[in-house]
């Protein structure tokens, strides 16, 4: 059994394996997602987006490993890999732990799994991943919009406030806006903070998941202002991983969603899931199996 | 009585089989490729091989099919240099 890096030349094979493993998304959708990830990775000067698992009898499976640099809140910046869309063909699932061990041979990096199936979550925990939070806080935006957010202002990328942000943060916001996310600058506690939300759906209802925020305290204090901004753009809920819904507007605390699982150094206070599968792959395909 | 180099990991496998009420396995019965045991059980075995027997799982030459039967597991551990758990 070998792992072969997925390069641009393997796009068709990768698309085919992903469509086979995750049929909830059409092959054309997978093709678009694979192209988007390659475009991003190649802009970073890299060429691989994960690995195809092979053996003498053929291809056994696939795992995307999307690299990203964490610099918004991490000092010094660190490298992470989002392990996404893990699929082993029927009968080959038992090879999963060895594939993961090989994929994670770069010991200095941090690894993230955001959409693991229940079996995969357990397997991840056995090899050292930890759950970053106990569940998902889901904030319905209609009641939240009635809540005041004193001393909080929301700015968009085109505003004068954006010019005051560090160039790298501005670029991070712009890149995610181009990928279809809501990219904002939140004025809170007399400072400007980048906040990014990725479009998603729950039970067919449109919402947005927080993928970048300096703290959940900001989300709590800015919930009213964020709700008003998001409602005006057609989103009906906002969600993010957390340990409690205390202090938020009337919310749900959902423990059945896949937790953010992390292996390696991480700061549980901040939320940084930028350049992850949440921005490259439409939600219906986001469930890693084992 | 047979002394197995793989006694510790063998015990883990037999314990998992017992917990899942699957009964004992023969020396040459496929454990994983047959679907008898799943990826979570394979994880337990691999972690034990790494931590107790010093098996380098990142080595591309490590062949996972060698953990598929108790017999091949024993052969692999016999061939492994270094100390073994007592």
Automatic annotation (TrEMBL), chain A:
<protein>
    <recommendedName>
        <fullName>N-acetyltransferase domain-containing protein</fullName>
    </recommendedName>
</protein>
Automatic annotation (TrEMBL), chain B:
<feature type="domain" description="Carrier">
    <location>
        <begin position="1"/>
        <end position="81"/>
    </location>
</feature>
<dbReference type="Pfam" id="PF00550">
    <property type="entry name" value="PP-binding"/>
</dbReference>
<dbReference type="InterPro" id="IPR036736">
    <property type="entry name" value="ACP-like_sf"/>
</dbReference>
<protein>
    <submittedName>
        <fullName>Phosphopantetheine attachment site</fullName>
    </submittedName>
</protein>
<dbReference type="InterPro" id="IPR009081">
    <property type="entry name" value="PP-bd_ACP"/>
</dbReference>
């Amino acid at each position: 059994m070998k792992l072969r890096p997925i390069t641009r030349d393997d796009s068709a094979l990768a698309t085919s394996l992903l469509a086979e493993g995750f049929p909830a998304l059409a092959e054309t959708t997978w093709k678009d997602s694979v192209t988007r990830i390659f475009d991003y990775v190649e802009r970073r000067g890299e060429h691989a987006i994960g690995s195809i698992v092979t053996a003498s009898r053929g291809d056994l499976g696939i795992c995307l490993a999307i690299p990203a640099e964490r610099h918004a809140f991490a000092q010094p910046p660190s490298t992470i890999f989002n392990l996404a869309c893990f699929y082993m063909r029927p009968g080959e699932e038992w090879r999963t732990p060895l594939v993961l061990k090989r994929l994670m041979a770069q010991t200095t990096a941090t690894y993230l799994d955001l959409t693991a199936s229940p079996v995969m979550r357990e397997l991840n925990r056995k090899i050292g991943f930890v759950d970053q939070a106990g569940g998902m806080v889901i904030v319905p935006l209609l009641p939240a919009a009635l809540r005041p957010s004193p001393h909080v202002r929301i700015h968009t990328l085109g505003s004068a406030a954006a010019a005051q942000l560090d160039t790298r943060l501005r670029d991070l916001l712009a890149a995610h806006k181009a990928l279809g996310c809501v990219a904002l600058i939140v004025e809170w506690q007399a400072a400007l903070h980048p906040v990014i939300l990725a479009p998603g759906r729950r039970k067919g209802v449109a919402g947005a998941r927080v993928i970048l925020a300096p703290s959940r305290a900001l989300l709590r204090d800015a919930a009213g202002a964020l709700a008003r901004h998001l409602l005006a753009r057609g989103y009906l809920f906002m969600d993010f991983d957390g340990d409690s819904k205390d202090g938020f507007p009337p919310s749900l605390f959902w423990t059945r969603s896949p937790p953010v699982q992390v292996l390696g150094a991480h700061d549980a206070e901040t939320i940084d899931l930028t350049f992850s599968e949440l921005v490259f792959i439409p939600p219906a395909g986001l469930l890693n199996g084992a | 009585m047979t002394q197995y180099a793989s006694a510790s990991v063998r015990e883990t496998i037999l314990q998992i089989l017992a917990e899942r009420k699957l009964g004992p396995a023969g020396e040459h019965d496929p454990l994983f490729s047959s679907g008898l045991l799943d990826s979570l059980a394979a994880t337990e075995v691999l972690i034990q091989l790494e931590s107790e027997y010093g098996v380098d799982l990142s080595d591309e030459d490590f062949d996972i099919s060698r953990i598929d039967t108790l017999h091949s597991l024993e052969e692999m551990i016999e061939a492994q240099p270094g100390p073994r758990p007592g």
